[in-house]
């Protein structure tokens, strides 16, 4: 009798356990599943950072286009190169793309410490600043306020962006992509035909969404052929671009989430209402079909 009752209850217990595992699954399992899906979506083989240390400005270049073509935030390039007006650069000008081919340089700065019971005198305290032009300005100011005998030692940065000076692979996947708009796919990526992204036809004023979370690094009309353009930096590897908008709804420096409305579809610099969408890896255009569910358009 007991045995029969046990076996009659056992399948129900399994069923309930299965339901609990699907409903009350701990967040860590959901995160692992999301990461697995992201890895499958980013199915391109790992790629080394091919970008050079610097770039020489050519005719027709702008700082905006250089940053876009090499996968950077133009604000960072302007600051690194001491460019006060990003809209003004000269042919033949050398633009550094990396701070001494490294990521975050650390400067060790001595700061005088007040004596405690006359036991500590003129002993420097070490302060670390991430590398930037503004940080170096703060360092200079600290130096002026420091004791005359104090000295500053700048630590050489380690290469953090691989590239042609490192064998490390820095291809970082984006955790999840989604369609930037709904409509009809009217243009596909083609490296041989120099088609750098996809084109989605739609209605004037319909929403354009961020395809993945990131930071807006460009918002404007300064890149020829793109009309009103938004560029989002997702990480140190990937950018996405949204062109021909009627109206831009986000500002440079703004953080956006996946699926957030960032613009209204339009036809600026285009013959019809459409969204031109690009995915760039280290600044190089790659096929969005590798990341987006285009079959759902």
Describe this structure in words.
With 297 residues, the protein is an alpha+beta fold. It has 3 domains: 54-99, Roll (Membrane-bound Lytic Murein Transglycosylase D, Chain A); 106-156, no CATH class; 184-296, Glucose Permease (Domain IIA), CATH 2.70.70.10. Helices cover 22% and strands 26% of the residues. Strands 6, 7, 8, 9, 10, 11, 12, 13, 14 and 15 form a 10-stranded antiparallel beta sheet that branches. Strands 4-3-5 form a 3-stranded antiparallel beta sheet, with helices on one face. The radius of gyration is 26 Å and the shape is globular. The N and C termini lie far apart (59 Å). Mean pLDDT is 75; it is low at 2-41, 101-129, 142-163 and 165-169.
Please name the defining characteristics of this protein.
297 residues, Membrane-bound Lytic Murein Transglycosylase D, Chain A, 10-stranded antiparallel β-sheet, alpha+beta, 15 strands, disordered N terminus, 3-stranded antiparallel β-sheet, 22% helix
